[in-house]
């Protein structure tokens, strides 16, 4: 026990935090003490169960990081920006899930299935985890990149509400808003006349820029950070994918669209490779890649959907097709749980990789 | 009156048929007699209002086409295959909305904003209208093709339920199934655990191969006609777009995805052109193209969504962006009502173009 590193989990009361505690309870146990920290004043002072032990939730303070080897941050950009440097100053390696440090050249951006060795070079003692949209497809695309050499990606997303905070920053605010909207439209004949859904939803749009029930909304995330018409999240998918794959010149564009799904993101991906590919070879690569499940037999009803993959860990890949007029291009449809691999799981995996390297 | 051509509308009791009667009542009146025909025994013998006049609905027989100049078919593939040749034999020009004749080399496939002149060359006396998925984006893409020369299209769709018949072929069966599913999931906490939506929806999937409420389903249309993993609808978008644009070598791939929206299809489009494009030039072209509305100012909440465009006639285009690493590529998000331009409107426009050319 004494040799094993101490982990602090920062942000344990949100949806991602509670999933993280599940993983820490289920995975091979590499940790000595696990210390639970939270900034939400209602919850600090409470207790949560991790590894079967009732564990106090302590308030987020500088002293709370004393003796901590690895600090896993599962909080907002604002809290990460404020507290990650404090944890580093107190001697911890920070594993951060927020967007704050992802593109910092002195911070590695890690997906353990693809670039686990990157955790070692961390001049700021911070390791970052990509955003949920990038994570929903990158394990599969990284596997195909290794096999065939990616040249270009065109991505259109079908993103769930669970990745969206409330307008006031409330955890899972997107889910609450979508559920309220679904109750307003169920049992009606809405969706057939101009503006009828918008009128029925009224000011219950929540964090979304338009009604989401009976609709799809081609803008995700805040207006801040947009550039030349691209949303910050579309630009982030581009920059994060390039960084994780170590391909700073990869051609990649994304269109991010919110859909009325509670949890699990989907991506329609057009991928061009350096060399010719076949569906059979792509199937072989995907079927043997860690963290990926190939589920591709439409005739038997086998293709991934968010409602089917929610609550599971892998990246699910189906609808693999080769472009009829381009033997170097594939189309794929990919689904992954944005709270698990897209949220808590990748960050926990990074923390475990840091622990292995510390001991 | 005597000089004006006689129109028969075949299939007047379905959703597309009733929208067609609205257009025939609102557009400049080019018709002499408008004869209403229907194969559904319950409805034949009834009456419907067109151009403000109560008009009998006659049963579909060979004799019903006597004296008809233009026969507008808004029925299933099966009925079109059976009855279109009968109407031609009786002397009518058939305008057909079904999939039966679309790719016949002796049948022009027409989008009046793009290739109205094609109605003239009709060796079989049949003119076809494209499918709703193709029609939801082709007016905009055709305008950009003329301006910049299309080289390649990558399309991911977000398709509404209203284009989907019931498992028994019932008109609007997709809408009924989606509404039932929405009632089953509203007010629940479904969508967070593996398979919970599938269990709740049970056998209420209707015509869809998986639950559609709280989900997206990466397969549209029947299993028949699939090839190398491509659905028949994905192949149809490819073939129809090439034929309408007169570009048999256009590189085009589509991924068709069903979303829980009642009416109006959306498309995320990646378009590569022969020459450099800018967002400003694309805006100019789109803003001045007939049948297209440019709606592109995300900072002001302006982007098309299906719930906002339902019940309107044009093709709505927003989210126009230039690829950062390809000055010849644009991304766009396009919405259109699958029952209007995607269904009745294009067919009525074709019939009107034939009428103009007959008189």
UniProtKB/TrEMBL annotation, chains A, B:
<dbReference type="GO" id="GO:0046983">
    <property type="term" value="F:protein dimerization activity"/>
</dbReference>
<dbReference type="GO" id="GO:0051287">
    <property type="term" value="F:NAD binding"/>
</dbReference>
<feature type="active site" description="Proton acceptor">
    <location>
        <position position="265"/>
    </location>
</feature>
<dbReference type="Pfam" id="PF01118">
    <property type="entry name" value="Semialdhyde_dh"/>
</dbReference>
<dbReference type="InterPro" id="IPR036291">
    <property type="entry name" value="NAD(P)-bd_dom_sf"/>
</dbReference>
<keyword id="KW-0560">Oxidoreductase</keyword>
<dbReference type="GO" id="GO:0008652">
    <property type="term" value="P:amino acid biosynthetic process"/>
</dbReference>
<dbReference type="InterPro" id="IPR000534">
    <property type="entry name" value="Semialdehyde_DH_NAD-bd"/>
</dbReference>
<dbReference type="GO" id="GO:0004073">
    <property type="term" value="F:aspartate-semialdehyde dehydrogenase activity"/>
</dbReference>
<comment type="similarity">
    <text>Belongs to the aspartate-semialdehyde dehydrogenase family.</text>
</comment>
<feature type="domain" description="Semialdehyde dehydrogenase NAD-binding">
    <location>
        <begin position="6"/>
        <end position="122"/>
    </location>
</feature>
<protein>
    <submittedName>
        <fullName>Aspartate-semialdehyde dehydrogenase</fullName>
        <ecNumber>1.2.1.11</ecNumber>
    </submittedName>
</protein>
<feature type="active site" description="Acyl-thioester intermediate">
    <location>
        <position position="132"/>
    </location>
</feature>
<dbReference type="Pfam" id="PF02774">
    <property type="entry name" value="Semialdhyde_dhC"/>
</dbReference>
<dbReference type="InterPro" id="IPR012280">
    <property type="entry name" value="Semialdhyde_DH_dimer_dom"/>
</dbReference>
């Amino acid at each position: 026990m004494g040799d094993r590193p101490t982990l602090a989990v920062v942000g344990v009361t949100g949806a991602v935090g509670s999933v993280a505690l599940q993983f820490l309870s289920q995975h091979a146990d590499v940790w000595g003490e696990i210390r639970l920290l939270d900034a939400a004043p209602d919850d600090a002072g409470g207790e949560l169960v991790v590894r079967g032990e009732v564990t106090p939730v302590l308030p987020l303070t500088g002293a709370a990081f004393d003796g901590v080897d690895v600090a896993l941050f599962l909080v907002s950009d604002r809290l990460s920006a404020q507290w990650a440097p404090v944890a580093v100053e107190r001697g911890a390696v920070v594993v951060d899930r927020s967007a704050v440090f992802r593109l910092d050249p002195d911070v590695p951006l890690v997906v353990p299935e693809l670039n686990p060795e990157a955790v070692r070079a961390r001049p700021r003692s911070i390791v970052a985890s990509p955003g949920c949209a990038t994570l929903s497809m990158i394990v599969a695309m990284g596997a195909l990149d290794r096999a065939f050499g990616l040249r270009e990606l065109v991505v259109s997303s079908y993103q769930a509400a669970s990745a969206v905070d409330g307008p006031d920053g409330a955890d899972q605010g997107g889910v609450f808003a979508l559920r309220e909207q679904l109750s307003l439209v169920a049992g009606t004949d809405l969706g057939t006349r101009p503006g009828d859904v918008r009128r029925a939803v009224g000011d219950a749009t929540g964090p979304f820029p338009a009604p989401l029930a009976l609709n799809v909304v081609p803008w995700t995330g805040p207006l801040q950070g947009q550039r030349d018409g691209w949303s910050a999240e579309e630009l982030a998918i581009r920059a994060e994918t390039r960084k994780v794959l170590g391909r700073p010149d990869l051609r990649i564009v994304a269109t991010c669209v919110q859909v009325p799904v509670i949890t699990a993101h989907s991506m329609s991906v057009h991928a061009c490779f350096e060399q010719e590919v076949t569906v059979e070879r792509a199937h072989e690569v995907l079927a043997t890649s860690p963290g990926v499940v190939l589920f591709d037999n439409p005739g038997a009803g086998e293709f991934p959907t968010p409602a089917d993959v929610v609550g599971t860990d892998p990246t699910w890949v189906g609808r693999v097709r080769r472009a009829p007029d381009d033997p170097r291009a594939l189309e794929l449809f990919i689904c992954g749980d944005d709270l698990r691999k897209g949220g808590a799981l990748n960050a926990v995996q990074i923390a475990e990789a840091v622990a292995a390297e510390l001991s």
